[in-house]
């Protein structure tokens, strides 16, 4: 019997309507369009506006659309892995909240927190349940409402992030397509350089923690940049080499969208021309767990059955990794 792989059989995405442009940011902090575009590649990002709107509200339209595309009901989903750094609340898990909102009555689920590498960690974890034969339909969601943790008075971070959600359905595949390899890493020594220190058990929310801004995302950009450039490229090349893939046989690089310069450096190390690299950072900025599935969603029409995809990410933790995925369908 041929080995069962976990293949993506449907992908969908959702970004909120409101566009936060570089021009508007110029009115909020001391920055300018030229600096943002040349240093990051970002022109605009989407923001979820409205009282009472949370990360699960980004996921609901994405998941409903995915179910419709695949022609299945929410009750058929067996497991939901919700990758996010901005859960609706500390508990219950956003996976539970999503299941309730979309009517996934037969699913169990949990949240997975690995910052910008969240989707890769979630995809790898979800694949285990398919490969073992335990489940046949696993939903992996990558969503973040980054605007809920961004300090719009801090020009170092507020220009970078946006809100968005991408999701995929994993199902068994016996044709040799699906998730074929993964290298995932963590290094807790990265904590000082990228974190949200308030609101957890270390610094429970108080007037003091709020006044000190501990509930906001903090990043020492230059240090994170150096680690990201090296590590993201290293793992992407490692996965390519150990699967005997070359720049000719890789069809697509799907990089985490944190900075266009990091994407370009990774593509260059992998020897891949820009036509093979998915880039939408100019439109959405860094949506943390959302970036990679949002790329897959936007490029779905161009993907062909059997295409070799290399996914790669680096983020807070530090966390980083790369996945080799053989695409399982051509959209009709
Ligand atoms: O997804 C999670 C992982 N995160 C990443 O991968 C992000 C990694 N880091 C980065 O992408 C970049 O480091 C940033 C885009 C965050 C910053 O770019 P940089 O080229 O590393 O700039 P820098 O932090 O070294 O700052 C250079 C200068 C500084 O001024 P001085 O000290 O040279 O006078 C900053 O104060 O640019 C200044 N600066 C700005 N100027 C205009 C910082 N932010 C801004 C801004 N507008 N928004």
From TrEMBL:
<feature type="region of interest" description="ACP-binding">
    <location>
        <begin position="257"/>
        <end position="261"/>
    </location>
</feature>
<dbReference type="InterPro" id="IPR013751">
    <property type="entry name" value="ACP_syn_III_N"/>
</dbReference>
<dbReference type="GO" id="GO:0004315">
    <property type="term" value="F:3-oxoacyl-[acyl-carrier-protein] synthase activity"/>
</dbReference>
<dbReference type="Pfam" id="PF08545">
    <property type="entry name" value="ACP_syn_III"/>
</dbReference>
<keyword id="KW-0511">Multifunctional enzyme</keyword>
<dbReference type="InterPro" id="IPR013747">
    <property type="entry name" value="ACP_syn_III_C"/>
</dbReference>
<keyword id="KW-0443">Lipid metabolism</keyword>
<comment type="subunit">
    <text>Homodimer.</text>
</comment>
<feature type="domain" description="Beta-ketoacyl-[acyl-carrier-protein] synthase III C-terminal">
    <location>
        <begin position="240"/>
        <end position="327"/>
    </location>
</feature>
<dbReference type="GO" id="GO:0033818">
    <property type="term" value="F:beta-ketoacyl-acyl-carrier-protein synthase III activity"/>
</dbReference>
<dbReference type="GO" id="GO:0044550">
    <property type="term" value="P:secondary metabolite biosynthetic process"/>
</dbReference>
<dbReference type="GO" id="GO:0005737">
    <property type="term" value="C:cytoplasm"/>
</dbReference>
<keyword id="KW-0444">Lipid biosynthesis</keyword>
<comment type="similarity">
    <text>Belongs to the thiolase-like superfamily. FabH family.</text>
</comment>
<dbReference type="Pfam" id="PF08541">
    <property type="entry name" value="ACP_syn_III_C"/>
</dbReference>
<keyword id="KW-0012">Acyltransferase</keyword>
<dbReference type="InterPro" id="IPR016039">
    <property type="entry name" value="Thiolase-like"/>
</dbReference>
<feature type="active site">
    <location>
        <position position="116"/>
    </location>
</feature>
<comment type="pathway">
    <text>Lipid metabolism; fatty acid biosynthesis.</text>
</comment>
<keyword id="KW-0963">Cytoplasm</keyword>
<keyword id="KW-0808">Transferase</keyword>
<dbReference type="InterPro" id="IPR004655">
    <property type="entry name" value="FabH"/>
</dbReference>
<feature type="active site">
    <location>
        <position position="286"/>
    </location>
</feature>
<feature type="active site">
    <location>
        <position position="256"/>
    </location>
</feature>
<keyword id="KW-0276">Fatty acid metabolism</keyword>
<feature type="domain" description="Beta-ketoacyl-[acyl-carrier-protein] synthase III N-terminal">
    <location>
        <begin position="110"/>
        <end position="188"/>
    </location>
</feature>
<dbReference type="GO" id="GO:0006633">
    <property type="term" value="P:fatty acid biosynthetic process"/>
</dbReference>
<comment type="function">
    <text>Catalyzes the condensation reaction of fatty acid synthesis by the addition to an acyl acceptor of two carbons from malonyl-ACP. Catalyzes the first condensation reaction which initiates fatty acid synthesis and may therefore play a role in governing the total rate of fatty acid production. Possesses both acetoacetyl-ACP synthase and acetyl transacylase activities. Its substrate specificity determines the biosynthesis of branched-chain and/or straight-chain of fatty acids.</text>
</comment>
<keyword id="KW-0275">Fatty acid biosynthesis</keyword>
<protein>
    <recommendedName>
        <fullName>Beta-ketoacyl-[acyl-carrier-protein] synthase III</fullName>
        <ecNumber>2.3.1.180</ecNumber>
    </recommendedName>
</protein>
